[in-house]
Amino acid sequence: MDGEKSVQSDDGTRCAFFYGTLMAPEVFYRVCYNSSDIPDAIKSLHKFIPAVLHGYSRHKISHADYPGMRENPEGQVRGILATGLTRANVEHLDWFEGSQYERRTVQVKVLVEAGDLKTGEGNVEGEEKEAEAYVFLDGKSLKEEEWDYAEFRKEKLRYWSRGGHEWPDVDVDDAVDEDDAVDDAVDDAVDDAVDDAVDDAVEEAKGAAV
């Protein structure tokens, strides 16, 4: 899938704006790490922040569970800003989205307060962030009807977050090896766990000696 060069944060990671199935962390983890049940050390590397993208609109796609987004000067799309994406994460997301979408650089507004998911009523917008988003290319396949995230979670999420779909050949260990930041986080988590175990053992030994 052709797209613009990835936008990197100061720490070398990337941000993306998700507005469809990937708004569900369960789907994101399944795509990027081939599992919905991943270690807390990996989860801590990503944040999912409510955000709004202006100048676009989101629509249902004929015969599909997922939506498409197209430019619309009067539109706005409620989604999430996902942080901490590695190069490997972006490669898997590109594979997942496929040739139907183009990855573009966009400017999103982080929501200080998140209002109604459909109408946007009650939204309080904060700072602007640069991110990447996947824009649908085949406008003829888009319906006028708005895609409903709440409906997706209720009716379809269980099919998208389990092992029945074929994702890229990747596992958590491979993903960890590809990124130093992940390595450091895992090492810290292991060290903390070992320290806690040693402390508990020492306390038990002291108690037994009394």
Automatic annotation (TrEMBL):
Gene Ontology molecular-function annotations: transferase activity
Protein's UniProt name: Putative gamma-glutamylcyclotransferase
Similarity-based family: Belongs to the gamma-glutamylcyclotransferase family.
Organism: Podospora australis
Lyase as UniProt keyword: no
CDD domains: GGCT_like
Pfam families per record: GGACT
Keywords on record: Transferase
Domain Gamma-glutamylcyclotransferase AIG2-like: 17-148
Lineage: Eukaryota, Fungi, Dikarya, Ascomycota, Pezizomycotina
Record field: transmembrane: none
PANTHER family given in the database record: AIG2-LIKE PROTEIN D (PTHR31544)
